[in-house]
Amino acid sequence: MKILVIGAAGMIGRKLVKRILADEAVGGRQVTAMTLADVVTPSAPASAIPIDTVAADLSHAGVAESLVAGRPDLIFHLAAIVSGEAEADFDKGYAINLDGTRYLFEAVRQAHLVDGYTPRLVFTSSIAVFGAPFPAEIGDEFHLTPLTSYGTQKAIGELLLADYSRRGFLDGVGIRLPTIAIRPGKPNKAASGFFSGIVREPLVGVEAMLPVADTVRHWFASPRAAVGFLLHAATIDTAPLGARRSLTMPGVAATVAEEIEALRRAAGDRAVALIRREPDETIARIVAGWPQAFAADRAVALGFTADKDFDEIVSIHIADELG
Amino acid sequence: MKILVIGAAGMIGRKLVKRILADEAVGGRQVTAMTLADVVTPSAPASAIPIDTVAADLSHAGVAESLVAGRPDLIFHLAAIVSGEAEADFDKGYAINLDGTRYLFEAVRQAHLVDGYTPRLVFTSSIAVFGAPFPAEIGDEFHLTPLTSYGTQKAIGELLLADYSRRGFLDGVGIRLPTIAIRPGKPNKAASGFFSGIVREPLVGVEAMLPVADTVRHWFASPRAAVGFLLHAATIDTAPLGARRSLTMPGVAATVAEEIEALRRAAGDRAVALIRREPDETIARIVAGWPQAFAADRAVALGFTADKDFDEIVSIHIADELG
């Protein structure tokens, strides 16, 4: 099978590609070729499988058409302007996250109208499609009321994915990713950054800032679990989904206090002592509007598997990033 | 205040305009000018209030800009390709119902960026944003899972309305209209047509076809109630809406049997005898996917008022259409 990964240079994209190349198959089907696309040309890992790398901005006319010209059997659409940037740059967010996604679906539809092409298309959505107020645990039938332009664009992507699937132009699965922890790399300015930072930095002896109360609770998945979700979405039977093509992924609901205790179990009091409490009302207010926990019953019934607990999330980070 | 009505030539649009011209005010504010727009030039009723009539296809670039150039204080966006046509013509439905709506919001935003213009914008959505399976009574927090391209486009319009409102570019209220009954005029090919037809035709001595079982239950509002919803949406304080700008309108849940009994009370057995049962499996299957009843608590709390019962719906038709 031929696979196209759009957004292949991102953190999850790189891990997904690495895993596919290691397995050389997805769902038991041999991978024969891969195309890796991103706004900057992704680097191609060494592999026996032929890999094309492409610099592609989905918001430009014709780009999506050229990406599907080779008729990939499986498309992962991970590309997005992230939450903070989509909020700061209204036009750019809509251009990439809404128009880009629609151009992609439309390019698939045009190919479908020519020769019946109907790829599996895995679309990464986000729990940012939800906005407060919500119940303590958000069920699978709760409405989408995003409080950011990013969340709005993802919710619209879900609606388009469902309609294009219902009409038979593509075979879509949308997955609403939890907040990814522990996100590897440098600290960034995302409001959610501290959730990873308070574990990642102390594990390598560096101080980390905690801007919110220990009681703050949120919904997490490790990068390894996220890659597992993507690959499972690529291979499940979509008949049971009916017209409801997007699924809240299972995750780990953990408070900051529980994160800290998991860090203590993994690296001791010396690591925990590197967390510096520095309350930030702006971040606290943003985070207060985020979901805390979900009942992801549909996804669980369909075989999507979350990390066991926050200890596992910490140990995955240690194994995958720190050797 | 200056008012723009887009979709002014449609059944609801015409009734809305007639009511505004009769009242000469909306929410206690004097109406000083009206612009009536539709794909075909709407006719302007005789009135002391200056009326502009415009042929405008929102899906064409620049059209929305010219409509908001006069900075209307209040915009009613009623224009849409209806359900059946949006399903039959995928491109046309998306062009008018999605692109047209987005062009309008974007034209308002561009005006806002120039001079702070922030009109009240009333957007007509539809219960078609909901798709089976659902509970017997659909609450205000139930997710939107449309089963038509029309419903998808309306749901996307709701998301855009919320985001543009949240960002302060416009002051939006979306109202999800029930199925309108009794729809005046000739029978049409809409799958929902019989709900009106089995009352409208017998009232004037004409036979009407009933393609579904008497037990089928659906959600209705009279044209007069729909106009009331639009005017109330134009005047309510939007602060209590928060970021959740679209509301399911209250309605009357009635079975076909209840409709028939209301007809009998209004016009006797002779009228009822004109209903010819002619089961149609295609229509029965389509209607089975439609909502039956809602708990429209938010809208009721905000003062939106439904018809009392189906008897009232019948008597409104008699009063407004048959004199």
From TrEMBL, chains A, B:
<dbReference type="Pfam" id="PF01370">
    <property type="entry name" value="Epimerase"/>
</dbReference>
<feature type="domain" description="NAD-dependent epimerase/dehydratase">
    <location>
        <begin position="3"/>
        <end position="200"/>
    </location>
</feature>
<keyword id="KW-0521">NADP</keyword>
<protein>
    <submittedName>
        <fullName>NAD-dependent epimerase</fullName>
    </submittedName>
</protein>
<keyword id="KW-0119">Carbohydrate metabolism</keyword>
<dbReference type="GO" id="GO:0016491">
    <property type="term" value="F:oxidoreductase activity"/>
</dbReference>
<dbReference type="InterPro" id="IPR001509">
    <property type="entry name" value="Epimerase_deHydtase"/>
</dbReference>
<dbReference type="InterPro" id="IPR036291">
    <property type="entry name" value="NAD(P)-bd_dom_sf"/>
</dbReference>
<dbReference type="InterPro" id="IPR050005">
    <property type="entry name" value="DenD"/>
</dbReference>
